[in-house]
Amino acid sequence: PGYYGKSCTDACHLNPCENEAQCHRKPSSSHGYVCDCGDNHFGQYCQHRSDHQCPRGWWGSPTCGPCDCDTDKGFDPNCNKTSGHCHCKEFHYHPRGSDTCLPCDCYPVGSFSRSCDAETGQCQCRPGVIGRQCNACDNPFAEVTNSGCEVIYDGCPKTITQGIWWPRTKFNLCGGILPQRLCRWVHLDSSSFESPPLDGTAQIGHTPSSVQVQPSDTVM
């Protein structure tokens, strides 16, 4: 449920909810989605105006009850005024089978907005940008920019590896790097980078098959 037509269009993309209500995917519901009515409307499509309004954090009619949404797990304290259904906070997503909402954490340079898919967490990437958070490029010599992925010809591109951002740096020899800084080797034969181990054992040295390097931020 929740998908319609030959192309299996997501029901929420068809905007079935009325009165500016927000549609949220919910595979366990009869229609595969629910409409978050807000404070002034109720009904499956939020088509009815509510004369009796529950305060924020409460739901029901004619008697109001607490929403009981777990904010420590990323849920919004306010729930659906008709069903009591809890939904994620803004800029969070709810993986299928999980009881927790996770932050989208979209990379602002590589994505169009801070919002992501309500179930997969996939951010809306700019052209050529990949990754759930839109923080990577297919080409190892390209970096993410406001216009998409851009190839860097005179140095190593800014990129993220093992959770660490390496800044864009012009080509240089590893021997000239300060001892407090790590570097990456550029393998010209395989068109790839070799990052140093990040467990404190990294040493600056020379590799015959590699000729150029990029320093990272200072390791404290």
Automatic annotation (TrEMBL):
One of its GO terms (cellular component) is membrane. GO terms for molecular function: G protein-coupled receptor activity. Residues 9-47 form the EGF-like domain. Residues 104-151 form the Laminin EGF-like domain. It comes from the Eukaryota. It comes from Tetraodon nigroviridis (Spotted green pufferfish). SUPFAM superfamilies: EGF/Laminin (SSF57196). Residues 204-220 have a biased composition (Polar residues). This is (spotted green pufferfish) hypothetical protein. Residues 197-220 are annotated as: Disordered. InterPro entries: EGF, GPCR_2_extracell_dom_sf, LE_dom. Disulfide bonds join C37-C46, C104-C116, C106-C123, C125-C134. Keywords: Disulfide bond, EGF-like domain, Glycoprotein, Laminin EGF-like domain, Membrane, Repeat, Transmembrane, Transmembrane helix. One of its GO terms (biological process) is cell-cell adhesion.
